[in-house]
Design goal:
Layout: H1 2-25, E1 31-34, E2 37-41, E3 50-55, E4 63-67, E5 76-79, E6 97-102, E7 111-115, E8 122-127, H2 133-143
Parallel strand pairs: 2-6, 3-6, 3-7, 4-7, 4-8, 5-8
Antiparallel strand pairs: 1-2
């Protein structure tokens, strides 16, 4: 009976350790470098300094991000050929700002409305195998602490 109790208490701990190791050891999170600072998406919710959420309702949004087909018109462009393209530009350091995408708005964090139509606070161009449009939007908004760049939304 004692063996069963020990086994029952150790199995959840082992499962938690394996889960934590796979999350912490993973280095393939989208990341951008801004001068001396890196901005990285993380799946570890409690480590993130900025929690962004997405909405389908433009009225609920605090930040609007437009997806554009013109890289020259974009405020933020991500173009890569996939494997290994981000490794050299984004090294973890004390100045790394961690961003997470939350299912619901958290503590007044930014709520992003992502669309192909204007008006927009940011415009993004994404052609990537490693970044999704949502991830790119989260990174640019998180890099600016969820603040709008324009006084009035632009067309």
């Amino acid at each position: 009976m004692l063996r069963f109790k020990i086994l029952a208490s150790v199995v959840p701990l082992l499962a938690a350790a394996v889960f934590a190791r796979s999350e912490i050891g993973s280095v393939s999170h989208p990341c951008i470098a801004l001068g001396e600072t890196s901005v990285e998406l993380t799946s570890l919710f409690w480590t993130a300094g900025v929690h962004v959420a997405f909405t389908e309702d433009p009225a609920r949004a605090t930040v609007r991000v437009q997806i554009t087909d013109d890289a020259d018109a974009a405020d933020f462009a991500v173009v890569d050929d996939g494997l290994g393209s981000e490794a050299e530009s984004c090294q973890a350091n004390p100045a790394t700002r961690l961003i997470t995408i939350a299912a619901q708005p958290v503590d007044g964090g930014p709520v992003i409305y992502l669309s192909t139509d204007g008006p927009a606070d940011y415009r993004i161009y994404v052609r990537s195998r490693t970044f999704s449009q949502r991830e790119a939007a989260a990174l640019i908004v998180g890099a600016h602490d969820g603040q709008r760049t324009l006084q009035a939304a632009s067309l």
